[in-house]
Amino acid sequence: MECQSCGLPLRKDPRKGGTNADGSKSATYCSLCYEGGKFKDSCADGREMRRYVRKRMRAEGRNPIAAWFQTFDIPHLDRWRQE
Fold this sequence. Notes:
- By secondary structure, the chain is mainly alpha-helical.
- It contains 3 helices and 2 strands; from the N terminus they run ββααα.
- Helix content is about 30%, strand content about 5%.
């Protein structure tokens, strides 16, 4: 399963998922995107999130081409399909 906001595989999330408003673990979103029942980013749509994640990946030293491929499907994740 991957985060339905940024595409990060939840198994790679250091906290193993974000948190819902009641403090329970989210099975849908990672801890980088979701905390206390709210999204941490201010992205308006999937394309903006894709740019945000690519920028973050490049800052971590990831290959830009690999970052492009790994973020390609972000606009098709559940959070962004509801647009």
